Amino acid sequence: MICVSLGRTRHKMMIAEHQSLAQRGAELVELRLDFLSHLPDLTRLLKERPTPVIVTCRRSQDKGLWKGGEDQRQTLLRAAIISEVEYVDLEEDTARKIPRYGKTKRIVSHHDFEETPRDLEAIHARLCKLDPDVVKIVTMAHTPADSVRMLKLVKEAKVPTVGFCMGEFGGFSRILCGKYGAPFSYATFKKERQMAPGQFTFEEMQRIFRYDQIGPETEVFGVLGDPVGHSLSPLIHNAAFKSLGMNKVYVPFRVPRDQLVFTLDQFKWLGVKGYSVTIPHKEAVVSQAQNFDGPVEQIGAANTLYQDADRQWWASNSDYDAALQSLALAGVDENGKVPTPEEFLTGKKVLVLGCGGVARAVGMGVINCGGALTLTNRTHARAVELAKHLGCQQVTWENRGSQYADVLINCTSVGMHPGVNESPFAENWLREGMVVFDTIYNPEQTLFLKQAKQRGCKTVSGVEMFVRQAAVQFQKFTGQPAPLEIMQRKLRRVISAVTVKDEDDEQPGTQVAKT
Ligand code: NAP
Predict the structure, then answer these.
(1) E strands, 102-233, in order
(2) What is the Å distance from ligand 1's center to 264 Cα?
(3) Does the pLDDT value for residue 268 go beyond 60?
(4) What is the pTM of this model?
């Protein structure tokens, strides 16, 4: 069950939002009395409540907004109990002073906004002695391992325990606590009104992560990166799981660069079956696999880690496969037949713009499929180094031109949202009949692609590649073909929503992460 926390300054708004949440399917709502600017009127708030509630009133020492006296606060909590609210939230010291009465269930809570303390288990044991129906323990995670510790505690607890971590290292514990027996997790009414760092919205918990369907048997997948906050991968992988009725969930795992090996070891306890891997772990993750699927070692980077039936870990690079599959779309014939990447690329001159991670995988694919590759990069030394590694030619950024290209591929970030008015290649260098592929997927129609279309080039967008790299991962994760169209539709809908929202917010700088 998801409990949605509601905090408004006016009773009228709190009641209206409570109604709206009930209509949207909320089954439990926390009324944060400390947010109200006037003395809380419990009769008004509770009279026709559309869902069961938790009544909570936090003092400033607990990072709440209550400005009245302590006696007054305790009187309110007692009054809530007498009114037979379903739950009342009592901090450790308050729980000692307010005894059980009637049917109201007691949530005995502890919050630590600074850290996940060493004596977490001892604190939990103390809370268990205060006659709780539910223990709530919420701490700040400074590492992913803090969240794993918390989930272990939830699993081993004898008293039903809502336990998760705050902050970006704690997000996955909010989603996975239900798997380990937490009776509910918390969500916020909407993003702008987060009550604790890292909180997801009700919509996200319900629609993306399908929290209520998560149980002990749910298999866990996720994206490893830093940052991962804006990753679109949870959206499309979870949409794919949902469409096929799979008992699987895909979560964001923010893991700092220097903690990859330790964290993967900690995550063994979670039983994660597969990871997408993004910046900054694509190179380091290669050494964490026992087996390689495709030219991972040649590329020197992987974006997928998955376990086979014998629990062996495999690394693969689905950017490589996806870029080749996407490129081949440009060679479709009048009967709709798409050539193989080899058929499409053999004997063609290919110019790759950029020499970062994606260019490495794309360049390797072009060479392996028989294309004649030329590299170019703003920082020339990187082009020289990569050309040496791949055994191809390079030109300086200033001298890049269409003489090197039947096929032109943008692997730079030039043109990506919000820099949508930029292109990595001069319009008048584009020639009719050229194939132009932009790996950028946000926006889908970059300036580069728009100009290429106007000049009569065949174009392929980064959405084709993004969705295919996810589809290749899905197949490795589940052993089943991915629902490509569903993933594609989801991605396009989200990209257009992000673009529209950012334009509305007028916040240049908001970017969508890569994986
Ligand atoms: P990366 O490793 O950080 O490389 C970025 C590349 O862009 C470098 O070659 C860099 O050149 C170049 N660059 C950045 N700003 C530039 C500028 N103002 N002018 C010229 N060149 C510039 O990133 P990556 O992981 O390879 O990702 C590159 C692009 O691929 C991203 O834009 C992303 O949208 C796209 N991508 C697409 C997919 C997909 O599935 N469709 C997946 C992943 C990534 P320097 O070496 O000079 O810095």
Answers:
(1) 105-112, 134-140, 161-166, 185-188, 219-225
(2) 27
(3) yes
(4) 0.91
